[in-house]
Amino acid sequence: MASAFTVGDKFRNKVTQLLERTDSCLPERLREELQETLGKTGPTTVSFRTARTLKRHLQDEGHPFYLHELLEDSMLHLPEVVKPPRNPVLVARLEKIKARLANEEYSRITRNVNTQEVSRGGTLADFGREVRSVKAVVATVFNFLVTVVAAFACSYMGSQYLFTDTGARVIAAVIAASVVGLAELYVLVRTMEGELGEP
Questions:
Q1: Contact by Cβ (8 Å): 120, 112
Q2: I need a surface site. Which of 1, 43, 157, 173 has the fewest CB within 10 A?
Q3: How many domains does the chain fold into?
């Protein structure tokens, strides 16, 4: 908290004039304080108490200048705040608390992240089983399509010995492909029922 002014040149000049006057009846203590203040080099400070005493004297003596005029180019002197040394025990406790809070925050952020998990529901082993299952389904569908297309192609090519008309050959090939496709579906369904029935 401020308790003094850092005085400027105007204060120095006016107070020097006041001290040089022989007719001024400054109290001895005030005169000594002002002379000591003016005798300092560098930034000079005047306490609020000295400034109040000077103001009272100027009012009592009826001088033509006032304190606010003296302090016009002065500033409040704000002393540096000296921070007390920190207690090392307290600092250590604060560091532990900060580390614990940081770990809790990290755990909260990463609680649903697991290197062994792809999703919340399973591990990489589960994912591998699902991939193998998808691969089996894709292979089965591909096998079904290849079988039906091959049956169509064989029936179409073989029916040229029975039918000379292209329309009749296509119909015979479609019928043969449909029969093979239904048989393939029957086998597929039975296989899937067997797999689903396993524990």
A1: yes
A2: 1
A3: 2
